[in-house]
Amino acid sequence: MTARILDGKAMAGEIRAKVAAEAARIAAALGRPPGLAVVMVGENPASASYVRHKTRSTLETGMASFEHRLPADTSQQDLLALIARLNADPTVDGLLVQLPLPAGIDSSEALAAVDPAKDVDGFHPLNVGRLASGLPAFVPCTPLGCIALAKKAHASLAGLEAVVLGRSRIVGKPLAQLLLGENATVTIAHSKTRDIAAACRRADLLCVAIGKPEFVRGGWIKPGATVIDVGINRVAGADGKGRFVGDVAFAEAVEVAGAITPVPGGVGPMTIALLLVNTLSAACARAGLKAPAV
Ligand code: NAP
In which domain, by residue range, is 171 found? Predict the structure, then answer.
């Protein structure tokens, strides 16, 4: 058996085309393009690459991009002052602070300083609480992408045994909340889980976000299950160059699963596409316009 490949790149392309059309409609109504501000502190190369992608995608879909790069030794006070300025800027609809922040910065305080109405990453405690309460909220983009990809394989997620491996606040926890909202039966496994392989084998829908290259083996997957691999890990390739692999041993898993996301080209492109959707939603909500049709 060979699994169906859930092509996140293609799906993200379709979403971005709709985003561009909606951005034009919203820009006409606002008299300015919807705007996304990204704040990055320090020189983390992976973060710099994500920020470049976000900026490019924002501009390509006709939105305004405001990129703020601060040196690694920026003080907490200066970061909070910039966030306050962007909160007050009427041309900024969405505002995100790229993680991780340097060791000297209190990330929780920085995330809580973002106006919840501009919090397109969904990391503000108010949005976290609203999601957990089943209320409308800004939801982190990576878990939203996981749900959209899972729905490519399943008309409904209701009643599925869903196992989420990883409990970070940016992926695992919000993904588990979304799956509960879809009426799946949800198990969250993590580094203290006693028998991870057994937990994985229960899953009709297995979502993995742990940051460990090819950790989940083919033998841990229930035949026919859907596998959503969030991991992005750079490893040395046979040719000596770096290459990216997921948290799932793809070559093994593809022989057992019913459907699987590739790495790269699965969850990653969906994350940025859904960030653009969240930015449009923020622009519409702030201006009292109809929500974007994406
Ligand atoms: P994280 O904050 O480091 O959290 C990792 C989670 O995995 C933790 O909950 C940890 O458990 C768990 N874990 C670690 N080792 C484990 C093990 N051996 N067995 C079971 N659980 C284990 O990571 P993250 O930010 O969620 O990211 C996870 C992966 O997704 C990374 O590869 C990251 O690059 C990728 N990612 C991709 C996207 C995208 O757009 N595609 C977005 C975000 C992240 P404890 O809580 O017990 O420590």
Answer: 141-267
What is the model's pTM?
0.97
Phi, psi of 244 (to 5 degrees): -105, 135
Residue 268 alpha carbon, nearest atom of ligand 1:
41
Q: Measure 196 CA to ligand 1 centroid, in angstroms.
A: 14
- Do the domain assignments include residue 150? yes
DSSP per-residue letters across 208-270:
E-S--TT-B-GGGSPTT-EEEE---EEEE-TTSSEEEE-SB-HHHHTTT-SEE--SSSSHHHH
Pocket test for ligand 1, best of 147, 173, 191 (most atoms within 8 A of CB): 191
Residue 131 lies in a domain: no
Series of mean pLDDT values for 10-residue runs along the chain (294 residues): 95 98 98 98 94 97 98 98 98 98 97 98 98 97 98 98 98 98 98 98 98 98 98 90 95 98 97 98 97 94
DSSP strands (E only) in the chain: 4-5, 35-41, 64-70, 94-97, 161-165, 185-189, 205-208, 226-229, 233-236, 242-245, 259-260
How far is 203 from 75, CA to CA, in rounded Å?
45
